[in-house]
Amino acid sequence: MRETVDEWLAASGLTFESTMELASNAALRESAAAGLGCAILSTDAVGFELAAGRVQLIDLPGLPIHRMWYLVYQERRRLSPAGASFVRFVSSPAGHVAVNS
After folding, report:
1. Which of 11, 75, 79, 93 allows an S-S link to 83, with CB 3.0 to 4.6 Å?
2. Residue 88: closest CA among 73, 98, 69
3. What is the DSSP letter of 66?
4. pTM of the entire structure?
5. CA distance 54 to 38
6. Is residue 18 one of the residues assigned to a domain?
7. DSSP letter for each residue of 18-61
8. Looking at per-residue confidence, does 84 or 100 come out higher?
9. Rounded to 5 degrees, what are φ and ψ at 71?
10. Per the domain annotation, does 41 fall within a domain?
11. pLDDT (tens digit, 9 = 90+) per residue, 34-80?
């Protein structure tokens, strides 16, 4: 995600001064909620904080960032029934849904 955000910043002509770097969505989310700065996170990562009014969205050109996601698993290892069902679902037309975030 960091590389994607760096590419978006460069393409947008935006610059910022980084005073700290955090490694997890939870740390970024809690730091932003505490007023320590801002973060670029998916709305899925901050849904509760948005609903509770702990953070707010800032509309910026070029956001949201859309990315490709891939399903990966170890093919030689047997999947659990739930895992196999999930693979079948996301591989089916029903699993190909557009999500706005």
Report:
1. 79
2. 73
3. P
4. 0.61
5. 12
6. yes
7. -S---SSHHHHHHHHHTTS------TTTTHHHHHHTSS-----T
8. 84
9. -95, 120
10. yes
11. 999 888 888 888 989 999 999 998 888 888 887 777 888 888 899 99
